[in-house]
UniProtKB/TrEMBL annotation:
Pfam families reported for this sequence: OpuAC (PF04069)
CC terms in the record's Gene Ontology section: ATP-binding cassette (ABC) transporter complex
Main location: membrane
Name used for this protein in its record: Glycine betaine/proline transport system substrate-binding protein
Keywords: Cell membrane, Membrane, Transport
Subcellular location: Cell membrane
PANTHER family hit by this protein: GLYCINE BETAINE/PROLINE BETAINE TRANSPORT SYSTEM PERMEASE PROTEIN PROW, GLYCINE BETAINE_PROLINE BETAINE TRANSPORT SYSTEM PERMEASE PROTEIN PROW
GO molecular function: amine transmembrane transporter activity; carnitine transmembrane transporter activity
InterPro entries, sorted: ABC_Gly_betaine_transp_sub-bd
Length: 285
């Protein structure tokens, strides 16, 4: 009998740590490999962990992010562009998701060139296609801006091909071209650190192919009911362009994004911590 009791106690001791780990993970955040997504997600992790929460963050491509949230396999993504750029994903998964808040309310997308390039409209690209080597540098083919650019190529009958790559590769191509004063056109968006790092201009889009968007924070369906205090934090998490550019600039200072996010956090601690509410307060809201 004593052996049985001892066995049960040992089993409990073995099982309990893993159970505690599962219980302690308060929120799982997914984010795309984009500058603003990396910055705000790492910052959110720091803010919440300072308040005693356990936060896990995971980088995925956009499609798997929406799919994971819709299945309830993860909790939140802070970098979704709605209602236009990610429209296809929202049509497919939106009924299994909920919007917690607006992180940024002035998102724009489009084609971007250095200011020394003397054209000002998408309609002028064909006449100068050789100067651009027939290329538009874009990001991953699963991104909304990639699809919108394919639409722009059709609508404007552009004789240029979009090159799918990572955001990092696209920025590298931009940087290299600028260093040699070469003509280059990329897919761009605001907010993004590129606007602070380089002298750029958006090309006019007379056919309005590229829409304006808001960056929404979305969650699995039921998240705000299950965890109202965390939902309220994400509702409160909002930045203007100046603040967001400062955050991204800090994050760029080191290969480890947590270092830059911590620098930003230390500068704005009082404001950032005010976004976190107590459980009792959240239930009343």
């Amino acid at each position: 009998m004593k052996k049985n009791i001892l066995f049960i106690l040992l089993a409990c001791l073995i099982v309990m740590p893993s159970c505690q780990r599962i219980k302690k993970q308060d929120v799982l955040l997914l984010y795309p490999n984009w500058a603003e997504g990396i910055a705000i997600t790492n910052l959110a992790q720091i803010i919440l962990e300072e308040k005693g929460y356990t936060v896990t963050i995971k980088r995925l491509e956009l499609g798997p992010i929406y799919a994971s949230l819709s299945r309830g396999d993860a909790d939140v993504c802070m970098d979704t562009w709605l209602p236009n750029t990610h429209k296809d994903y929202w049509i497919k998964y939106g009924n299994k998701l909920e919007i917690l808040g607006t992180m940024f309310d002035d998102g724009i997308t489009g084609l971007v060139v250095p200011t020394y390039v003397d054209i000002n409209s998408i309609e002028e690209l064909n006449a100068n296609k050789d100067k651009f080597n027939g290329k538009i540098y874009g990001i991953a083919s699963g991104a909304g801006i990639y699809r919108t650019t394919e639409d722009a190529i059709k609508e404007y009958n552009l004789e240029l091909t979009q090159i799918s790559s990572s955001e990092t590769s696209m920025i590298t191509a931009l940087k290299k071209a600028i260093a040699h004063k070469e003509w280059v056109v990329i897919t761009g968006w605001k907010p993004h650190f590129m606007w602070a790092e380089y002298d750029l201009k958006p090309l006019k889009d007379p056919k309005n192919i590229y829409p304006k968007d808001e960056i929404k924070i979305i969650a699995r369906k039921g998240f705000s009911t299950d965890k109202p205090e965390l939902a309220k934090f994400f509702t409160n998490f909002s930045m203007d362009e100046k603040m967001l550019n400062e955050l991204m600039s800090d994050v760029l200072k080191d290969n480890d994004p947590t270092i830059g996010a911590r620098i930003f956090y230390d500068k704005h601690k009082e404001l950032l911590q005010s976004w976190v509410v107590k459980k009792e307060t959240a239930k009343q809201l």
